[in-house]
Each structure stands twice: as C-alpha cells, then as structure tokens.
Amino acid sequence: MSKRADLEQAFQALARDGRAVIDGQRRETPTTFEDISPATGTSIATVSQCSVSDVDDAVASSRRAYDSAWSTMSSADRKARLHKLADLITANAQELALLEAMDMGKPFSDAISIDVPGSSYILNFYAEAIDKVAGEIPVTDPGNTALVQRVPLGVIGAVIPWNYPLEMAIWKIAPALAAGNTVVVKPAEQSPLSALRLAELALEADLPPGVLNVVPGDGPTTGAAVGLHGDVDVLTFTGSTEIGKKFLEYSGQSNMKQVWLECGGKSPNLVFADASNLNEAAEFAARAIFFNQGEVCSANSRLLVERAIHDEFIALLQKEVAKISLGHPLDPATTMGPLVDATQASRVERYLGLGKQDGRLVTGGSRLSIDGSDCYVEPTIFTDLSSDAAVAREEIFGPVLSVIPFDSEAEAVALANNSIYGLAASVWTSNLDRAHRVAGLLHAGTVSVNTVDALGVTTPFGGFKQSGFGRDLSLHAMEKFTGLKTTWIRFATTQP
C-alpha cells in the first residue's frame, strides 16, 4: 500500500464532525451544507449552517465565559491551558493536516510540516506573552499616580479565510485568548473542519465552555450575524477587500465595534540586474506565487524584472516551474494541489483567458482534471503585459504570475506602488544603498529583501491601503484585542 493510500485510509477513518461547537457542546442545526473536497469533488462532511439564533447563542455563551471564567482567571492558569492546547495540536498533527489537505487542497506534506507545527508554535508564543506584556506607570505631577493597564475588550468575532484554515484561526485566537478575551470563530464554509476540531481540543485543554465557539456557515447569514451582533466587541477578519468593506458597514450599522482587516494583495517582487544570485531569485520568485497554489494574500504575483535580465530570468523561472508536481494533496510527490473549489478554479480560469488576450503565455495556462476533480490549474506565467492588464492589476488568488520589465529604479518603484493594495513586496539586489532606498519607497506592510514573503511570529504582519489595517503576529497583535485603561489616583503628599 502506498503512502498516499495510507493517508487516504487514515482520512476515511476520521470522524469529520461538521456540527457547530457552542457552549462546549456539538450542536445540530436544522440547515446544513455539504463540505466538498477539491481533491475529489465529493462531500467529506455535512456541516452546520448556523443561523442568526445560533450566533446569538454562541455570543451569549462567550459573554458568560468572559465575565465568569476567562477574563477573571489567573494569568498562570490561562497560560497553562493555552500551552496544553498547543500540545494537543501537536499530538493531533496528522489528523489536523489531513483535514487541511482534503478540505482546501494544500499538499499534506506542507500542512504537516508547516501549518500544524506553526499553529502550535504561535499559540505557545502568545501563551508565554500572557505574563510578560505589562502596563505602565507614566510620569505625573507630585501627589498623583496613574496606572495604565491593557485590559481585554470582551467577545471577539473572528472570521477566517479558507487558504490557511487552522493557522489563520490561530493567528486570531491566540492573541485574543492570551489577552483575556473569548472568541466566536466563523470559519470559511469551504474549509471549516480544522477549526471545529480545534474547538474540541480547546475543551480537552480545559478551556471553559464558551471561551472558544465555532459557528460554521455562509457569509451572508452566519458571517453577517457575527459582524452585526451588538454584543461582539471586536471583529477581526482575513479575506477579500470586498468582504472586508462589508464588515466595516456591519460595524456602523450595529454597535461601532472595532474592526481589524487583513484583506487583499497584489504584491510586487522587484528583481534588479545587480541581484547576486539570479538562480536563487528565480527559485524564490516561483515559490512566492506557486506555493499553496497561489492562494496566499501576500503572494508575489507581480514580478518586475530589470529589462537587461528579463529573458534570462524568464528562462530560469521556466526551469523552476518544471520542478512543480501538480496532483492529489495526499500524494507525497505533490508540491501543488487543487484550488479550494470549482468556483475559485473557474475564477482563475477566467483570468487565464484574459492573460492570453493581453500578454504572452510563457508556461501553463490550463485548467486540468485530476482524479475526477476539475479544481486544478497549472502554474502559469504571462509576460509582455501592460501594468494596466487585469492579470497584472487584480488579485487572482491562484497560481498566475505576471512579469513586467522595467528600465530604471524609479520606474520599478512606480510600477510596484501602482496598486490599490499594499500588503507585501520583495526586492532583490546586492546594492545595500538600493535595498534601503527602495524598501523605504515601497508602500507595503512588509518588504522582504533578497527573500520573499518573509514573516515570523515576532514581527507584525499586515498592510496599507485596501489591504486593510491592524497587524497579526508579534506582540502588536494583542493591541487589537485590548484597550488602554487609566486609573488615576490623587493622594495627599503630607500627613494631616
């Protein structure tokens, strides 16, 4: 029996419970939907379609847990329970990775080696931060003392995207729980299973019922109910710019809840002729767009190459693409799996047609059927494009790279900044002056120099312009889920 067959057998043995988790219990809902795996085109679970009433119950449960259990718990106890949850993620790594792979299509090898251990690591990081993020005592006049504390804000609504179902949930949940809040998670309807399993593990880790509720469902019903709820204090969202704007509207229509958005991107990757290692730059450029099937908000989907090396660099990219193995996510040989569903595959396919009209197809360009699923799209490169072409301007969220030449540093910066987005950017150069100068001129939340899409738990991640605002990761993420509270004490300076 092959390894793929072993993994398929292991996946079939999983419970794959799609019922909501509310107040520490699995909940049946009158309405459900089928969770279709992009690897097979068949249903892998029947999932709760949570109603407004279900969301009301989840928020009420989180409010009770916040008031009576979690926000009042000692920092040592909260810390121990979050560490225990991180350990349970590690202990259940294969199950969680199988759910990720079959739910949204990423290779199992990536899920088991990157997503799941990364989730555990991030949760441990914020657990450790609980007793290390302190308040302050500012300078005041004699006879006065002021105490400034960071206090939890209450119930957090977290709306999670489908491209990193477990890890994006942890990006939101970990700092929110560490700060003393409770959380209601609305996972993407395309990939809800790992978040639901995470809620079960949270109960096993002795998080009180209601501290973490998970309400699956669609955006117009369940997502809107979370966004409009008057007892949700903060909304954190990762997803498209279009939907992010809806949550801003929901806040204004309800209780003016804080809204923190990490939205779309069309990140540029600038390769100058003085880059010290073009082979490495090409390897990283391919990884920056084709990893996770291109379904990455910060994917470097615009490649700006100095004209003197354009043709050479295109040839190097073609060699990198030839190394990619497109296939079933449980096949150990696979390095790129299917897109999340047929709707997304059709969307990307439309851009393939536009790219063929507006530019020159270098490689790829087709939608494929593998193992009965038509959710596969070849890694694709277009060149000879105008910067105004749709494939070079709009977020595709798929394995499609647009290559545009430039003749000067100023032109490269202008092309890079000519976008409604400002999430990430990369620069390849051996000139230290240029590296600092160009990085300073690029409108992006993260600029990676001589690498791509660099991030870590200790550094903030987020963007400018219509890529949103607020930061995930780092200790700064806890700022989204806390408020500054001042206690001012006036006292007599002499004894009566």
Helices and strands, with pairings:
Elements: H1 3-12, E1 20-22, E2 25-27, E3 32-36, E4 43-48, H2 52-70, H3 75-91, H4 93-104, H5 108-129, E5 144-152, E6 155-159, H6 165-178, E7 182-186, H7 193-204, E8 212-214, H8 219-228, E9 234-238, H9 241-253, E10 258-262, E11 268-271, H10 278-290, E12 302-306, H11 310-322, H12 342-358, E13 360-363, E14 367-370, E15 373-377, E16 380-383, H13 390-393, E17 400-406, H14 409-417, E18 421-422, E19 424-428, H15 432-441, E20 446-449, E21 464-465, E22 468-469, E23 482-490
Parallel strand pairs: 6-7, 6-9, 7-8, 9-10, 11-12, 11-19, 12-17, 16-17, 19-20
Antiparallel strand pairs: 1-2, 3-4, 5-23, 10-22, 13-16, 14-15, 18-21
Strand content: 15-25%
Q: How big is the Rg?
A: 24 Å
Strands across the major sheet, in which order? 13-16-17-12-11-19-20
User: Could you say which overall geometry the principal axes of the C-alpha atoms support?
Assistant: globular
Our measurement of the CA-to-CA distance between the termini, rounded to an integer number of angstroms, reads: 88 Å
Domain count, please report it: 2
Question: Helix fraction?
Answer: 25-40%
Tally of contiguous helical segments: 15
Largest sheet: 7 strands, mixed
CATH superfamily of the largest domain: Aldehyde Dehydrogenase, Chain A, domain 1
- The tally of beta strands, per DSSP, is 23
**Unreliable runs:** none
CATH class identity of the largest domain: Alpha Beta
CATH topology-level fold name of the largest domain? Aldehyde Dehydrogenase, Chain A, domain 1
CATH architecture of the largest domain: 3-Layer(aba) Sandwich
Structural class: alpha/beta
Mean pLDDT: 97
